[in-house]
Every structure is written in structure tokens, then in C-alpha cells.
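Hi all, posting the design record for the shared folder.

TITLE: backbone redesign
STEP: 1 of 1
STRUCTURE INPUT:
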């Protein structure tokens, strides 16, 4: 897909920044390295890509933001992921659903790198079945009383603010579901211990036990689920750009390796069997990128096309898994070794088939749209 001059410019700016300011990462990074990079990202405006300029953002389209996230993740997935979270991930909920006060209070702190935000949606008994969440928000004077728990919350160990999905009514219907902002330190609210996932990224559980949250923190209540999922579709594209960048990094390293590694007296890229594997990977990469960019283009007016997002999600996640697996194969024992980053790239992109809705759930939604039938997931 042909990029406009402006889009190419954003891609080049991010590529140049990543090369000069970030070190190529080979594992998930925490501590000083993470904080130093977070500061560099904030100084260059990369923590507010899609957020309005008045709050320190760059006001870019989702497409432009995706191009930037991809380039950052190609060099340092941790930094790219952070830029995605701040710029077009969880902050989008505040930007698109929040009132003026909430935006003024939180967005400048996010774009300047002083505030990290987590998204509390998944629950122990409600993952794919997101409409089954049972965390409740019961009105009491000037507060909502929150009870329930969340699991798998990315960057929760760093976050001081959480967008929390909860039930504001008791009809048992989806229309009860809304979202509220909960600050760390709210009595009755605790962040669980750090849990490392397959890529090395930290996730935590969240616990609400009679946590009293001021009413002014509400983001959305009645009949908000569709709106919430609309914002979430844009968020998904950022996650896929991250996957695309990591997959490209694995491919780049593999191309260097096959041109330099010799067996049987010649570079291994001279073997025709490997050339075909390389061509297949390249076709998958090009197709995945084109499908992702089409979905990002459609989403750029902040109204993502649900089907285009699901198509991108399915294709990019499956291609990334296949490509990084082939990259390991082409590295032989070095691909399987923890001394080289190939196995880590594979572990990182594996998340795309699960986070943001599993592939099976996206395939069901897509089939429902294609067949124009609603499939009941319950007995
Ligand atoms: C890296 C990562 C980061 C995450 N970050 C966050 C976060 O920041 N905030 C947050 O709230 N959550 C987060 N999650 C959680 C994520 O959204 C859930 O893991 C995901 O929605 C799946 O839910 P589950 O894990 O409960 O799996 P389950 O829903 O239990 O699914 C198990 C299996 O059953 C299949 N399945 C379930 N229902 C159906 C069906 N109807 N038809 C066919 N197959 C079905 C699934 O596809 C899957 O294969 C993250 C997850 C990962 C991996």
C-alpha cells in the first residue's frame, strides 16, 4: 500500500528516532532503562500521538500513530508498547469518552510521561465473555462503591490510574456496563503482585473491596458498551502495529543471518529451500502490513471498521506467529537459544492471538457479520 508523503515522513521520523535514541532490545525491559526511554518518548511527543495538542499530544491519525508504533517496536518493543499504551491505547478512553475536566486533569500528565494508565476489563470469570463482567459500581451519595476483581492488567505495576469496566446497573444486561477512572491509593483498591507473562512483560490483578470512587470519575455509564468497544477497536490496531514491528525485527535479523551463516561451504541463503521460505515470509509480511494499514486508514476518523479490525487482527497475529517461527528455524540452534532474541520475538508476538480478544472470538464475530447471523455463544 502506497503511503502518502506525510505518512512516509512520520515513519521516517520514528525510524530515525528509534535508531538514534533507543537501543535494540532483546528482552522485556524494566527499571532505569525503561524510565530513560519513557522520558525520551515524552520529549519527542511519542506519548501523545493521537491525543489533542492542547493536552501535549500530536493530534495524529490512528494510521500515522500505527506507523510510528511499528517503527519503535522494530527496535525496542517495550518502549514501543509504552508509546502505544499512552498514545492510542488506554488514554484514548479518556480522550474519547472523558469530559473536559478529566481530560485537563489526566491527559497532560500522560503525554509528559508522568502518569501511566492501565485498562481493567478482563476478570477471572469473564475474559472472552467480556459482557459477563461482575465488578459492580453502586451509587452512594457522591461516590460509587466498587467491588470485584480484574486479571492480566498490563503495566499495572507502573500505573497510577486505571480505566475500570464495571456494572452500574443490576438488570444483568450489557447496557449496565460502563467505565470509571480509579486512582491508585483509593482506599479499598489494591494492585496485586507482579506476574510475568510469556514475553517477560509484567501484568497484575486488581482488587476492589468497597472501594469508594468519586462520581466525577465516571467515564461512561448507560448503554456505553458499544462506545467502549468502539474505542477498544482503535486500541487493537496499536497492538497489531506493535506485533508488526516485532515481526519485522525478527525478519531483518534473519536476513542478516542467512547471508552471513555458512554451511557446506556456502552462505545458507544460497540453498533454494531456504530462499522459498524467505519469499513466503516476505509475502506474509507484505500482506499483513497491507491489511493492517487498510484497517488503520479506515479507523483514522476514530470510527474503526469492526470487520477490518478483525481481519487485520486474525491475519497479522497468524502471520506473525508463522514468520517468527520460521525465523527461529532459519537460525537453527541459535534461534532456539536464549543468547539470541529470536525466541523472544516469537514469545512477544504470541500475545496477539490472545490479547484484545482471542482469534476464535474475532473469527466468530467476522463469521456473524459475513453470514448476517447472530450466533448465540451460550447454551
Ligand atoms: C499479553 C496480554 C495482555 C493483556 N492485557 C490486558 C489488559 O491490559 N487489560 C485487560 O483487561 N485484559 C488484558 N488481557 C486479557 C485478555 O483480554 C484476555 O486474556 C482475553 O480476552 C481472553 O480471555 P481469557 O484469557 O479469559 O481466555 P478464555 O476466554 O477463557 O478463552 C480460553 C479459550 O477459549 C476460547 N473461547 C472462549 N469463548 C469462545 C467462543 N465463544 N467460541 C470459540 N472459542 C472460545 C478462546 O478463544 C481461548 O482459546 C491481556 C492478555 C494478554 C495475553
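Okay, here is what came back for every position:
SEQUENCE:
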Amino acid at each position: 500500500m502506497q503511503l502518502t508523503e506525510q505518512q512516509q515522513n512520520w515513519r521516517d521520523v520514528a525510524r530515525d528516532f528509534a535508531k538514534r535514541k533507543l537501543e535494540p532490545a532483546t528482552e522485556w525491559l524494566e527499571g532505569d532503562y525503561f524510565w530513560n526511554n519513557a522520558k525520551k518518548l515524552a520529549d519527542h511527543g511519542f506519548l501523545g500521538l493521537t491525543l489533542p495538542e492542547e493536552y501535549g499530544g500530536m493530534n495524529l491519525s490512528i494510521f500515522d500513530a500505527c506507523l510510528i508504533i511499528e517503527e519503535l517496536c522494530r527496535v525496542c518493543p517495550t518502549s514501543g508498547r509504552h508509546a502505544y499504551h499512552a498514545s492510542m491505547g488506554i488514554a484514548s478512553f479518556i480522550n474519547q469518552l472523558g469530559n473536559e475536566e478529566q481530560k485537563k486533569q489526566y491527559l497532560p500528565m500522560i503525554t509528559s510521561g508522568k502518569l501511566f494508565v492501565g485498562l481493567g476489563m478482563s476478570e477471572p470469570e469473564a475474559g472472552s465473555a467480556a459482557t459477563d463482567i461482575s465488578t459492580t459500581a453502586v451509587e452512594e451519595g457522591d461516590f460509587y462503591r466498587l467491588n470485584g476483581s480484574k486479571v492480566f492488567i498490563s503495566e499495572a505495576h507502573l500505573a497510577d490510574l486505571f480505566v475500570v469496566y464495571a456494572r452500574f446497573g443490576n438488570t444483568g444486561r450489557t447496557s449496565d456496563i460502563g467505565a470509571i477512572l480509579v486512582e491508585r491509593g483509593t482506599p479499598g483498591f489494591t494492585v496485586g503482585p507482579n506476574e510475568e507473562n510469556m514475553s517477560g512483560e509484567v501484568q497484575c490483578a486488581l482488587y476492589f473491596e468497597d472501594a469508594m470512587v468519586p462520581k466525577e470519575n465516571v467515564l461512561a455509564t448507560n448503554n456505553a458498551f458499544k462506545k467502549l468497544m468502539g474505542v477498544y477497536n482503535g486500541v487493537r490496531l496499536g497492538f497489531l502495529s506493535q506485533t508488526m514491528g516485532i515481526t519485522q525485527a525478527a525478519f531483518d535479523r534473519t536476513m542478516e543471518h542467512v547471508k552471513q551463516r555458512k554451511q557446506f561451504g556456502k552462505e545458507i541463503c544460497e540453498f533454494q529451500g531456504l530462499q522459498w521460505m524467505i519469499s513466503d515470509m516476505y509475502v506474509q509480511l507484505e500482506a499483513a502490513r497491507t491489511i493492517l494499514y487498510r484497517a488503520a486508514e479506515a479507523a483514522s476518523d476514530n470510527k474503526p471498521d469492526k470487520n477490518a479490525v478483525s481481519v487485520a487482527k486474525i491475519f497479522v497475529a497468524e502471520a506473525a506467529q508463522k514468520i517468527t517461527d520460521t525465523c527461529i528455524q532459519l537460525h537453527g540452534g541459535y534461534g532456539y537459544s536464549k543468547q539470541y532474541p529470536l525466541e523472544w520475538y516469537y514469545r512477544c508476538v504470541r500475545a496477539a492471538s490472545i490479547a484484545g480478544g482471542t482469534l476464535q472470538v474475532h473469527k466468530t464475530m467476522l463469521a456473524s457479520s459475513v453470514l448476517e447471523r447472530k450466533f448465540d455463544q451460550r447454551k
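COMMENT: The radius of gyration is 21 Å.
Let me know if anyone wants the other runs.
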